[in-house]
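Appendix B, example 12.
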Amino acid sequence: MTDTPQRPLRVLAAMSGGVDSAVAAARAAEAGHEVTGVHLALSANPQSFRTGARGCCTIEDSRDARRAADVIGIPFYVWDLADRFKEDVVDDFVAEYEAGRTPNPCLRCNEKIKFAALLDKALALGFDAVCTGHYAKVVLREDGSRELHRASDMAKDQSYVLGVLDERQLAHALFPLGDTVTTKEEIRAEAARRGLAVAKKPDSHDICFIADGDTQGFLAKRLGRAEGDIVDESGAKLGTHEGAYGFTIGQRKGLRIGTPAADGKPRYVLDISPVDNTVTVGPAAALDVTGLTAIRPRWCGTAPSGPGSYTAQLRAHGDETPVTAELVDGTLHVTFAEPVRGVAPGQAVVLYDGTRVVGSATIASTVRATSAV
């Protein structure tokens, strides 16, 4: 059954300044909970205005969140978590790219900020739960344990970025939008009916702390430019780059290789070596992956024992693929039923049993169908 608390709770609603979190806070208040809104100030130097639909956590966003709280009729505060966000999310993001991996900062933010730093502070202040505008469901089982499930609307499901939550965190999480099978337009219409000015505000996209969307430029400012070689699978030099951190596994565009492939087909990034600052490119078929190992597993409940059959999701908006998986000495070993492409170390693999999220782990290595180098 879906987790619908029988008694009013003291709820801390994380309000980003967007429409989803505003409607979630309004629904929690309408359900009879004692709701307090909080906006997380995550940037040490917030811009006055976002650039179109990019970025978040700006002064404009905090003001939008405050106005929404006023309309809902709930208390509102701004909490400064900029130092914690920089250390746990931004610095981690830069370090992962420097090491040749492709991180997902949204997962890290959910794990370290919204359901660790924020939740811990909320519980210390006597709140029962943290409410967010994520599209996912917490299901209460008859034995009292909780499970994380996909949202009713698969098109908006965000359970992938919540796969880092453990059972304790799920026990204090509310996702009022998760049971809703509606379009985003209907959520906006609901916001308008409630008198929330954010009804027409564009969604934020890309990485919230890179407002202009230029990830390579952001990394270059922090890591410096370091010229290296772009080579093919045989090791032949095809071109140069200004930093291996500017590439991701499976990337096709922006390679700036003047020499065409012998077969005339596009080439993709196959490997990134931070040790010698080399980027290896090759044909799409060389991206096929048959398995992977993943570290730092986090389970949404009891850890699975022995090998099992699941589906896996490898990116926030990716498709599911059938797998077998087994935890061996703290490392998750995953084998795909059919080869998949574009799997990069640093990404998260999230396992599902039907709609239930089993857990998440960070990809450490992959097994290629054919050798990449």
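The chain is about 25% helix and 30% strand. Residues 225-284 form a domain with the SH3 type barrels. fold (CATH 2.30.30.280).
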